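Methods, example record. To illustrate the input and output format used throughout this study, we show the complete record for MFS transporter. The sequence lines were provided to the predictor; the line carrying structure tokens was produced by it.
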Amino acid sequence: MENYQQIGARLERLPLSRFHYRIFGIISFSLLLTGFLSYSGNVVLAKLVSNGWSNNFLNAAFTSALMFGYFIGSLTGGFVGDYLGRRKAFRINLLIVGLSATAAAFVPNMYWLIFFRCLMGTGMGALIMVGYASFTEFIPAEVRGKWSARLSFVGNWSPMLSAAIGVVVIALLSWRMMFLLGGVGILVAWLLSGRYFTESPRWLAGKGRQRTAEAHMHAIEHQIEKEHNIVLPTPRCEPRAGGEGESGAFLLLFRGQMLRRTLVAITVLIAMNISLYTITVWIPTIFVNSGIDVGKSILMTAIMMIGAPVGIFIATLIIDRFPRRLFGSSLLMVIALLGYVYSIQTAEWAILGYGLVMIFFLYMYVCFASAVYVPELWPTHLRLRGSGFVNAVGRMVAVFTPYGVALLLTRYGSVTVFMVLGVLLVLCALILYFFGIETRKVSLEAISGLS
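The corresponding predicted structure is encoded as:
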């Protein structure tokens, strides 16, 4: 116990240095390529239909295979990461994604492509969760939110990257090159991770491997002292009751104080998924149903999505300035209000303007939920399984959300869709504010003991 808390205190007093930047670089690079492969599917499907390789039913199977893989990966990746280590989990899933994406470039038919798409999804679902959750264990609490948000900022450039590269590569070469580029890139990340992705000293100490944890910490501290030409201060470690333990059974997520965190995390991710998939996926359809032609609908959607990277960038600047519960719940309230206001607009300039602002706040919340708050909630011995489980639940909600939206849109219209969404988001905001725990600038060891 004391050794575990001492390791955490030593990590907390480290100044940001090349050690942190390398961890940030390899995880952000991997997340960017993972997003590239995920969004490349949307670009590739249109080409596959046009050349007779696929049809609407096979397209649906292709998309469902990815979502099923995400679900499986989120669940299994947590167990691998908590039992075998952050480094092994990260590298194993990089290898799964890299090999399956590369194999997808050489498939003989659509059925094999769907199979490898499912494998890709399994690796990507685990990789995203492992990347965000592991990163929290390396960064000091004082700047943890800002740097976790920066991971999200890099990763969320992938939709524009895949669209830009896809236009050129598919036209001049082949759709297969999209998977080959992504697969080779991920394999390069796998090679780099062997050198730059260090095992978490917190995880090592929590598993009782004190000698290895101490060796890792000594190497990190020596490197930082040499880089900054300083002598690191003695860490301040305050013993805490009920801290970290090795008895990290999965069922602990559903007992006592951990159950509260599990339910809050599920609520946070449900809010993210229902708003994300309602707003971003259905905006073009709602435009067309409102009488706007398809071409203009696509253009307006593209302009509105500029708000996504801008929103995440602003989040990196301000997320550590406000209490987490207040920040997240306020964003949900704003999105709920903007959704309704947006739905009653009739002028195209108003639809575009309110939509752009709504996307801006939506992606601030996406950054808060997936990259910052949920990974912080768990003690080290349960961090990846906790994050993995709640992300898996969020994925399942994402599967069923389109059917609910379609039903409401068909029977009652777009205003009702956004009214229902607004009510759900307000409920989620209240749960987060009143039942969530505060994690801003709090060490992971202290968070483990919060109630």
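Annotations derived from this record:
Residues 286 and 385 are 38 Å apart (CA to CA).
The mean pLDDT is 88.
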